[in-house]
Structures are given as structure tokens and as C-alpha cells.
Amino acid sequence: MVARGEFLEYARVFGKHSYGTPKKWLEESRSKGIDLVLEIDVQGAAQVKQKLPESVAIFILPPLAPGAGAEAAQPRDGRRTTKLRGVWRKAKGEIELAEKFYDFCVVNDDVERAGREAQAIVMALRCSSAPGGEVVKKVLGSFGG
Questions:
Q1: What is the pTM of this model?
Q2: Nearest to 100 by CA among 35, 47, 21, 26
Q3: Element (H, E) at 22
């Protein structure tokens, strides 16, 4: 599928697994007039933004910084500590890219609130009069001619 250009975005993860979003999902959702929500990593978001600059990206941020709770609760053996540092370093690097590839950020320190914030972003976009906003086009279309 990669060779045939059938993915909107794709990545090879951990050197052995490939993941991606087939373009046909986007085409199907557009033809039905529904939103397509992708749960993708920063690398995927960068690819989508490059191909579809009008797309809207929401970064779901973690609630804790290293040492603020999650890391501190882990056992202190050498291998685990080294592995955790690598995970935190990667996460920090991805968070630093938030301004480059994401339009909105939601901190996931309360699942219910974070969900409401993400819904509010989508609702605001649906009501937008910005270029590409469908609400104005829909009303104008109702006037006919």
C-alpha cells in the first residue's frame, strides 16, 4: 500500500511494525460529509498537515512531567530507569513539536474535561466562518441561485 501511495500517513514503529491511515478512509468520510478523526503520532500529524494543510490537529498532552509522579513511582533499577529516561526524552521532543504541527492542545489530566475540550474545539470549527468553513456556504446555498 505504501508503494502504491494508498496511505494518507504512515510510519514504521519500533523498526518492525508499520501503521498508517488509508486514503480511502478520508475519501469515504468526505463523500458522506462526516468528520474523520485520526489517532496518530507526531510523525503522522506532520504528514497529514503537509498533505492537508486545512486539517485540524489536536495534541492530547500528558498530565505529568518527568519526576512529577509517574516516573517517581517506578522502581529504580538501572534498566528501567534508563528506559524511562528514553521514553520521557522522546515524549518531550514530541511535545516540543506541538506548536509546529498542532492547532490546539488539550491537557489530559482529567479525562472527562479533556473530552469536553476536544468536543468544544470540533464544535467551534463547525461554526467557523473562516475559509473552508461550511456554515456560511450552507446558509448561502439555502438562498438559492
A1: 0.74
A2: 47
A3: strand 17-22
